[in-house]
Structure formats: structure tokens, C-alpha cells
Amino acid sequence: MPKDPKDPDSITPLSAPVFYILLSLVDRERHGYAIIKEVASLTEGKVKLSTGTLYAAVRRLLDGGLIEESEERPHPALDDERRRYYRLTPFGEEVARAEVNRMVHLTGVALEKKLISTPSSNSAQGKPS
Amino acid sequence: MSALRHLRHALHRAIFKVSIHVYGALLLLYPRDFRARFRTQMVGAFSDACHEQVADKGFTRGAMLGATLWARELLGLARTSAHERLRSWRQGRAGSWQGQEEGHAFGQSEPEKPFRPRRRGRFFDSLVADVRFSLRGLRKNPGFAVVVVVTLALGIGANTAIFSVLRTVLLRPFPYPDPDRVVTVWTPQLGWSFNSLSPADWVDYRDSTQSFEDLGVYELQRMNLSGNSEPERLSGVRCTAGLLRALNVVPALGRLFREEETEDPVARVVIVSDRLWRSRFGADPSLVGQEILVNRESMTVIGIMPNSFRFPGWQSLTEPDILVPLALEGQITDRGSYFLTAIGRLGEGVSIGSAEEELRAIAARLEQAYPETNDRRTARVFPLRDFVLVGATSDLWTLFVVVGFVLLIACTNVAGLLMSRNAGRDVEMALRASLGAGRCRLVRQMLTESFILALIGGAVALLLAWWGIGLLRSVIPDNLPRVEELSLDLPVVVFSLGAALLTGVLFGIVPALQVSGIDLSRAFRGGAGTMTARRAQTHLLRGVLVAQIALTFVLTCGAGLMLQSLWNATDTGELQEPDQVLIASYSRVTGEKTEIILPDPFLDQLLERLRVIPGVRHAGATTRLPLQSGWTANVVPVEHTQDPEYADRPPSFVVCASPGYFGAMGIDLLQGRDLLPQDLSGGIVGIVVNRTFAERSWPEQSPLGKRIQGGFSADPWFVGQVVGVVEDVRQMSLEAEPEAEVYLPFFPGFQEDRWLAIRAEGNPMDLVAGLRAEVEDLDPHQPLARVFTAVDLYDDAATSRRFSTLLIGLFAIVALCLVSAGTYGVTAFLVRQRNREVGIRIAMGADRESVLWLVLGQSLRIVMAGIVLGLLGTAAASGLIGSLLYDVGALDPPALAGAALFLILVAVGATLVPAFRAVRIDPVEAMRNE
């Protein structure tokens, strides 16, 4: 049976690029290349999205109503007419939050099972074999 | 410095622009709806990325960053475009699936499918799975992917670039309607097929033949255009009306010649080219009907040729500046001078063979009627292609074969890389097979991977080819017709794609079959069981490397020989200090066609003035320089005019020279003296012959004082006495042996070209201003053409040889790089395979040196096997290689030894790193890992 598309939990877990794109749009709207740069800086350069990956994800996010195109444009001196600016929809924010909650829950489980000692430890990122 | 920076900046900009275009074109991989929404944005984001990440990062760093960016983008494009295509296809097929799809669209897991609707869908799904799997594998091992893609891109890119030349020059039809019916007619007597027609023969053929719809003749000639602005020297064609009809050209403005305008006496009319019309007359349409001054005669412009018009010549298809009617006048009865080229359009349904048969029948009649000139003279008909593309055809196909070699080497290299990588995948494959994947399915998975690699390689290759074609256009020799039309068009792109797919199969199939054919139980059991499988694998890998080295040997050897030939051919030893000789030319139109011994007061005055310019040591003039081919005629010793053996000898080159020419040009005088002004006075003229003429005519006798005459008849066109013998110079080309040659002391009326040779004390180019001033002072309407040195003359003649040497050398370097990478990869793999063995040896007390020799010996054995195979290959291809060489054999021992030594050095170099790695193996570690 198809799940309810408006239930944020039905959409998670998110793929890494999608999650990073949502995160990059939390504080403000950005255009395509600005998203790529923001994702790179969020991950300290570990995730470098290609334009293909970015726009395939943008297509799905737009179609799913998680982000939308913004009508506001920056000062014409800083603008490039080829660019489109994207921002999170309230639903998109809900989904991002649901994903974070899922991760927090998982982190809690890992702590409880003593897989990691502190939530900030990097060693938790390795995949279980 | 700033020029360099400027150049670098321009290069960056060009690469940037090309990248954006290619990226834009690659977006065609996405479905239409996706492109409509995102294309502009994606191009914008990509160009932003290029700007920020690559620009201003310096050359090397910029190139590396650019390559990384492209690799990331190509992987992203390949992955997401396949996904988007699948989505768009599913949406188009069944709207009801959309909800399910989208519900999962953000997740990491594959959507569950409630049912499998059709077989095609299943195939497509598994294909997508294969593609995704392969991409994931490649992303895990980016170093491997980059090496493979670069290797393939080099191979396919070089092939694409050469194919584009082949297509433009050889495969594209000539720019005439129904080009297959356009042919050329020749009248060979002995040997050489392309012998021009004599005026009298031409008239007889024209009047008797029925095979042609239209038939005409032409003669190329430089012409002077003067008038209100600076005089200009133009390339001109004198032709009959039938010739332009045979080519079936339509003028852009005005009309072509009418039949009566090219009959005797010819009309004073002229047709100008589009180029001249634009450059000289400002594209003024009212030029038609106006008078212009050609060779100081007023002529009426009757037509302007279209921009696309090209005239077929020997090894050329160029745009002549000007066309005038051909005037044969007094020469119309001349059967002994051959200077007309005939071009005709065969009648509907007439074959070349039947036309030739008819012309031969006419030739036989002429032979009977005029045995003196037409003895054994026959007729040949050739397609236009054989005449225009002579030489180019075999050269280009050879290059294509060579570049095919490079691709083959690239393929074997990649196959080797894939095999050594797959060696670690026995267990994975066995696992997949035991889970129910059939052999076919496994092969498909492996082939998908090679196809993806090949396609990415092909895309990068297109980029390389784009750049390469631009480069080729600047280095390609002028005598390749139509190179200016060189471009990366659709058929070339299709070729590149085809080459990519073919290479995908070629390098993928062996590793795929090998991996998929493994023995399940043995693979799982590991240890001894896999040893046999591994041994088979190692054998195959070694075989691949041997093949690669053999191919590279042939190529390296060929490149070395080409270089040696270039060296031999451009040797200017036949001239003394050619860098001191300034050459300039002009044409002197006298209007007098029949007079043989004609005074040339302009030349005499000019030479006199030039000789007193400070810095000039000698000055002289001729009608033909070395290497420029030219006029040939029968010249025989007077005592042998009745000797049948002399009638069968090839005609001699006849060159007209002024006193002082040999000294100025630097041609050594071997015996006797130089020509003198008084050689013309009296009934018998003084003549200088070359060494070959003297040796052939009077072996072991002194030629001085002997008499020679023009032709065999009792009424020769000249009789002369040999006053000097000079050293041979090559007449036809750098590759041709010197022929017999005579230097006449006079300039006949029909020889209009004048080449000035001036020997300078200092830099010859310093004399140019003085030379121009003297010419202008003597005659302000006399244009002087290009000025250059004798070294340039030899350099220009070597252009096409230098071009093929450059390309073959370049390909050999690419092959050497590939083979050293291949040797490194395979040796490293073999060392890894023998880790345990080497560990045991070291543990048993083997010293480091013997381990080093173990590894080196292994790769030396491979190299030696490759070299032996390569030697056999070189011997087999010696005919082909030999056809490209000059003055050196295809099996030249020093070249073979050099290539072998070079390859051994390359192989040893590539083996050193893995060998030292083997030396440092820790025995305990090695055995534990096994």
C-alpha cells in the first residue's frame, strides 16, 4: 500500500545528499551552486555534490513539496538571471526535523549499547559490519 | 612574459568555453521534462563551479582540479540521468506508479515493486541495477577509474581526431554535382601515368571522343593584378569553357565563359573568386561588367564564383583567385610540349573503362600519324580523386592504422588493469553465482562496467579530439585538400561513440569471461584451489602485456625510422650555406609565347642593380627552384639523336638560369664554368648540365665541349654546347632521386616565372627592403611575391613529412606511456600474487639482490617476448613502414636495436618500484596475510 506522502516519517530515512540539501536551506534560501558550496562547507569538504546529483535531488524535493522556488531575488548587481533560488517549505522543515529526530534516537541507542562514548565522537560514523 | 600570460589566459578561456558546451551537450542524457526545468540552472551552476574551483589556480593545479571536477560531474551525470530516464519512462508508461515511486524518492532503499509487469521492465531494472552497481564500484576506486578513463580517452581521442581528418579529406565527396562522373585524362608515354596533354593532342581528343558530356583543359598560372591599388600576385587558372561545364559550377554573379570566348583568339574576359571579390573589390556587385588590369591587359569581369567554389589541382582543392580563357594561339599545333591538364564529365552511363578504351583507340591513331612525338603514347582516365588526393590517401590511411594501434594498446592496457583488479573478486563472483546469477548475468554485469568506462572515456575523448582538431588545423600541411573544413561534426561524434562501444567489448570481454568462468567450490575453499585459476590468470595477463609491448615496439621503431627519414630528407647538403640565400619571385608576362630565345631586359637590369647592393655576394635568377618539379623535355647528345636507346630514356628537367645563379643558390660547380652573358650570342648556346645528365650521356668521358640538342628531330628547338657541370639537386621532391637536368642560358617566352636567388653576406632578410625598392623603381606595376630563404624552401617541402612524423612520434610517446603504466600495473600485481613465495624465499635466507632479480627477470622475460613478437610484426609490416621512409630501410638494425633498448629501459623503469617493494617484503607479514 502506498504510504501517506504528507507524513514526514514515511519519507525518512533520507539519502545523504537530500538531507544535506535540506540542511543547507534551513537558515536561508540559496541557488544551486550556493547549495553545493554550503554542503561542502557543512561536511568540511567531504561531500562534494555534482550538479547532476544536486538537480536530480532538487527535482524530487520540488515534486515532493519539501522545497519551493523563491520569488525574491538578491540585489541585481549580485544576481545572475540563470539562477533560481530555493527555500524550505514548512513540510520540508518537518521532514528535516523528523530525520534529525530519527538520528538522535539512533544515537541514543548507540550510546546505550556503548557503541560510542560521547555523542560527538567521530568513530560512530563507521558502518556496522 | 605578458604575451605568455595572454596566451595562457586565452587557452584557459577556450578550455572553459569548450567545457561548458560539452557539459550542455551531455545534459541531453536527461529526459526532456527534466531538461526543460533545470538545464539553464545546471549549466549556470557548472560554469560557477568551473570559475570558482578551477580558474586562476595555475596551469598544473588548474588541470588537476578541472579533471577532478569533470570526473565528479560525469559520474553524477551518468548515475542521475539513468535514474531520471527510468522515472520519466515509468511515468509515461503508468501514471499510477507515480505515488509509490515518489513516496520512496528520498529514501536510500530501492522501492518495492508489487508486481513485475513485463519482461522488458525487468531487463531495464536489472540494467539499471548493473549500472548503479558498477558506478558504486568505480567510485570506491576512483584512482583505477581515472587511469582507465584517461587511457581510453587518449586512444579514442587520437582515433577521433585522425578520423575527422580522414573524413574531411578523403571520405567527403567533392563539391561538384554528381562528382563520380568527373574524371581526368592523361597521355602517358613511358612509366609515369600523370603525363599532361600537348595542345595538338588535346584538340584531336576533343574532336574525336564521344564518351564525355563535357571535356576541357586548363593550365595553372600566376597572374599579376594591378590598377589603382598596390599590384598583387594572384593564383590563376587558364581554362576552356568546357572545363567549367564539366565541373558543373554555377557562378554567384554574372556568367561563365562561352565556347567562342575560349576559342582562338580568346576574349579579354575574366571570372574572379569570391575571396578576391571581397578582399580587393569590397564585394561590389557592380564589378561584373567592369574592366580590371590582369597582366597589364584590360579585361572585362563577366562573373564572380561562389564562396564554395574549389578548383581541382594536383594534391589540392583550392580557391583560385582568377579564371581567364586559355589561349593556345601559336602552340595549337605543338605536339611535343605537355602542359595541359584535362578534366571531363563522363556521359550518362559511360564508365571510366569504356571512356579509356575509346581514348586509347584515338591514341593509337595518333601514334601512327605522328610517330615522332606519339610513339607508344597512350591515354589514361582516372577519377578526380586519384589526381586531387594523390599521396594523401595512403598517408592518411597509414596514420589511421597507426592510431588504431594506439587504441589497441590502450585496450590491452585496460584489459590488463581490469584483470588485475578482478583477481581479488573471485569470492564475490562465486558468491553471486551461488546465489543464482547465471554466467550470462555475470558477464553482463562485467560488460556493463566496461561499457560505462568506455562511454566516459569516449566523452572525455570527444573533448580531447575537439582540442586536438584545433591543434591539427594549425600543423596540418597545406597540400592536404580541404583541411580548412576540418570539424567535429555528427559523423565524427558517431564514430567516436562507436569506437567507445567497440573498445568496451574489446577490453571487457576477456576479463569478463575469465571472472565469470571461475570454479565455485575452489574459489570458496581458497588456498591451493585458487592457485591454478590464478596461474591461468597470470598467464593471460602476461600474454596481454607481451602483446602490448609488441605493438609498442612496432610503433616506436616506426617513429624512430620516420625521424631518421625526416632528418635524411631535409638534408640541404646539396646546397652551400642555404641560410644565406634569399629567394623572391615574380612573373614576367611578355605576351610572346612562341619565341624561344627572348631577351629579358628587365631581369638583366634588376640583377645588375641587385649585385651592387651592399651585402649582396651573388645574385641570379631561374625559372624553377630545386624541389619545384617543372618543365621536362627530351634533350639528347647530338651524336645520339638516331639512337633508339635514347628515345626510351625519361626526359630531362629543363631549367633556365641566369649567369650567377649557381653561385647565388649555392649549387657546386664541378667542372667547366658558370653560364656567361656571351653564351647566348652565336648560333650555339653555352649550356650547363648536372652530374646525372653528364654521367648518363657520356660515362667516363669529359662532358665539356659536347653538343646537345632539344628533341630528336633534324630541326631542334635549340642546339648547345656543354660549358659546365654542376652538382645534382633534387627536382621533384625531397624523397625523389635527382634526375638529369640541363640549365639553359635564356628565358623562353612561355616561361613566365622568375625566381631570384640572392646570396647575402649577413642576414639575407636584411636585403628585402633593398630588393623591393629596386623592383619598384624599375617597374611600379611589378608585384613581388613571398620572400623567403633557401632553408625555408626545404622546410616547406618537408611539411607533410614533418606532420606525419610528428603525429607518429606523438602516438609512439602515448604508446610508451601506456605500456609503462601497463608494465607497472601488471608487475605490481604479479609481485602481490607472489608475496607469499617471496616471503618464504626471504625467510629461507634469499638475499635482497636475488629477490630484486627475481622480479626484474620476470618483467625482462615479458619484454623480451614482446620485442621478439614486435620484431616479427615489424618484418611483416615492413612494406607498409618502408613506404613512409626515405633513405633508410624498414628493418634498419640501429633503429630496431634502439627501439628494443628503449623499451627495455622503460620496462625496467616501470618494474623498479614493485621490485623494491618486493625486496622490502616482511616474511612474517606476507605469510600471515595469505
Give descriptors for this structure.
heterodimer, A: 129 residues, mainly alpha, Arc Repressor Mutant, subunit A, three-stranded antiparallel β-sheet, 5 helices, 3 strands, 47% helix, B: 930 residues, alpha+beta, 4 domains, eight-stranded mixed β-sheet, six-stranded mixed β-barrel, elongated
What does this structure look like?
The complex is a heterodimer of chains A (129) and B (930). Chain A has 129 residues and is mainly alpha-helical. Chain A has one domain: Winged helix-like DNA-binding domain superfamily/Winged helix DNA-binding domain (Arc Repressor Mutant, subunit A). Chain A has helices at residues 8-11, 16-24, 32-42, 51-63, 90-112, and strands at 30-31, 67-69, 85-88. Chain A has a three-stranded antiparallel beta sheet with strand order 1-3-2. Residues 121-129 of chain A have low confidence and may be disordered. In chain B, β6 (291-294) and β7 (297-304) form a beta hairpin. The radius of gyration of chain B is 35 Å and the shape is elongated. With 930 residues, chain B is α+β, with helices and mostly antiparallel strands. In chain B, 54% of the residues lie in helices and 14% in strands. In chain B, α18 (528-569) crosses α27. Chain B is built from 30 helices and 24 strands. Chain A binds chain B through residues 2-3, 5, 10-15, 18, 31-33, 36-37, 48-56, 58-61, 63-64, 66, 80, 82-84, 95, and chain B through 34, 37-38, 40-46, 48-49, 52, 72-73, 75-81, 83-84, 99-100, 102-103, 105-108.
Determine the N-to-C terminus distance of chain A: 32 Å
- CATH class descriptor of chain A: Mainly Alpha
Poorly predicted regions of chain A: 121-129
- Largest sheet composition of chain B: 8 strands, mixed
Sequence stretches where pLDDT stays below 50 over 5 or more residues of chain B: 95-104, 108-119
Most extensive interface? A-B, 36 and 32 residues
Percent of sequence in beta strands of chain A: 5-15%
Which strand-content bin applies to the residues of chain B? Answer: 5-15%
The total count of strands of chain A amounts to 3
Briefly note the structural class of the backbone of chain B.
Answer: alpha+beta
Shape of chain A: globular
Q: Over the alpha carbons, how many angstroms does the gyration radius of chain B reach?
A: 35 Å
Give the number of helices of chain B: 30
Rg measurement of chain A, Å:
17 Å
Oligomer: heterodimer
Number of strands of chain B: 24
Query: What's the average pLDDT of chain B?
Result: 83
Specify the structural class of chain A.
mainly alpha
